[in-house]
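User: Hello, can you help with two protein structures?

Assistant: Certainly.
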Amino acid sequence: MSKKKCSPETNIMKALMLENDLRSQEIEAKQIFDVIMMFQKQYAKFTSKIQQQIDTAFNDLKIISGGASDVTGLANISSKKIKEAIEGLSSQAETPNRDTDDISKILQSVHDDINGISEKVGRQAMEISSLLSFLDIIHITGEKAVGRLPYVESSVRKYNEINKQTLRNLTALANFLSQEKNIKTVGDKALLMGHDIAYPPWAHIEKGVSAGIGIEHAHQMGKSLERKQIFIADQWSKVYPKLIGGEVDVLISVGWPNRIFNKEPVIASKPYDQFRARLFTIDGVPTTPKDLRGKKVGVQKGSFSESLSVYFGLERVVFENDICGMVQLLWGNLGAVLVEEKVGTYLSEAFFMGKIKSASDVLESLDVVYLFREDSAELMEHFNSFIE
């Protein structure tokens, strides 16, 4: 029985699936590696901090020990003087003519000693308080470091799984390409739809196939247009030029309006959803922009969250992706992260065991649209008729 030969379109789809998986895994592996490295740096920082605190606590202990000896010595001397004073008073009772000045001098000396002891004890109490404070800090610091171990373990496991899957896909792609030497291109009727490869849950790659909220909407769109769809996934910095250069017909799940498109030869469809920016904190402790005065807020570079942080006057720390910001939030280096609500929830559950949660009202909304070249007005109108 002869083996059924696949059509050129089926072959190109297989190749695209494997390539998409590899690109997605490369980006995800880099993100997770960055997370692991950030955890490592934080552990090194905390280890150094704990050592400094232990050294300070040890010095406090030595001071307390020395202070205790001083107090004991003063107390012994004063006890002897008090005893002498009592004996002196007894003698005075038996001998009325004894010089009372001697007794007064003894009592004044005892009084001075008691003041000295009080001062020493006061300093001793301060040193003990300082020691207890440092011991408490050491405990909290150590607890914080240990508390992050599950997240590190989770990240390492995920990184290992992705590396294994990447190896399998590389092998599969190599075998596929060695068998299919002349893969033909897809016909002109196919609609080439580009999207960001790493913006879950709006658009990403899952088991080699484009997936997410925007992709599901695009599938329905393709059915209404009765055109075959080919999804082309890449990083935004690469997929956007493909739209301008004519390598793709439309981009999925784009935030609009955005000043970066002001002078670009692009047009947008009607909105079919919304991006909503919220503040995220550990365990979702409620917060507002006003609550974050004097605190740092993590934002993703080039995102509408970054622009929003400027509008609210927040002290922002810019990261390449939201995951890095969430790592710093876990270590207490940020007061919050400002991120699109669905993205924040997805990343928290995928990378941080759901520890980071939405903590504010929606601070800003942005329309989600399809983006076209300005010479594709007719295609855009087809999309608009479906969105209506």
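That covers the first. Now for the second protein you mentioned:
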Amino acid sequence: MRRRLLLAALVALAIPGCGGEEPSASGAADVALLPAEIATLDGLFATNCAGCHREGGPAPFALLDARDRRRRARQIAEVVGSRYMPPWLPDRDLEPLVGARGLDEDEIALVERWARTGAPGADLAPPAGEGDLGPPDLVLEAAGPIAIPAEGAGIQHTLVYRPDLAAPRDLRALAYRPGNPGALHGGGLLLDASGGARRLDERSPEAGYRSPGGMGYSLVGSLDAFSPGARPQPWPDDATPRLAPGETISLELHLNPRGRLEEERGALRVWFAPPGPRDEVVPLAIGSLCIDIPPGARDYRVEDEIELDRDVRLVGLFPMARYVCQEVTLRVTPPGGTPRTVFRIRDFDLNWVQRYQFAAPIVLPAGSRIAMEMVYDNSRANPQNPRAAPERVRAGMRAIDEAGFVILHLAAATADDAAALRRRHEDGFRLRLERRRAWEAQRPR
């Protein structure tokens, strides 16, 4: 609902000349901003806006130039005041997350006062693409470009990279640098030791393959995701995923047709962690494949819970859902303790979801329980519902189908623990597929 109410403001924001000074709510003149306040505002815009709103970026207009911000000042204040921008889905009052965007109440008030007092400020420097990571250790390029049609729905295309490693390496960070950033609205990364990605790639006549309903094989190695404007997110110094010789890295790109034939050809950039002892981060999925949402349903729920059989640290997570998902909640319960909500999204948006990493990993001893809940709204009231008239929505591999998983990223202290978690992840997917087949056999068509 919040998105729908703000649509008019967003449309106006894209129209130059819609800004301007306004009186304060009390009718009294606002006090001019101090130089220190202007510098604070420039910093807020650089941190929260410049990643997308720059020349060649994914946003429809740039805000690095002070004149551009001044022309759109009123609408900037509106979307910031409503918390629609900067985009950040999770609740901010739970466990702190790395890279959280957003402004507090005092900062929002400062932006609103800025808009009413002439929107002063300086031009901003283009943001550094990869922050403080420095040059990548490895740059991987696709064999050829991806063709983007002029019209139609967004496309999903998976590229498969084959790092030539002689020994296992711990990953510090991964980042995709697009060749055509305006056509890209996000993607996901996955490590594959099964050979499934390689086989799909070899069957395709082009670089990579179209993947409208997912990467086409098990999500056992689900690793990372990114959204427009997001900088690479390094893993913790003491806990990282491990890339083994022979494994491939799959990158699923979500690309948008923009009225003309285009191509995308970027590069995957890889940073390795320095040698040293650290825990291995292993994915573990919780969720369900048994999703069947009736037309008009506004409170359809998917729930799942696991009990840990060994000590781990919860480093982060990645929610996997699509268009009619509205809420995502994750709770942890220590042995003999009470449930605690550690993560929640109240207004899910597929366009802005990413990998989330806790500022301090959550220690979970053996016997702890982790529970997820997703709530779906398959009604006309959900502005993210892509259907003109609500219809039955089920879990599936097509882009218009739904999903209901949270991929947990768990730090395992020993190689045996990491191997056991990987087996549990794989066995869990097989069990869910068996449940899905049994469930399908009992469902009305």
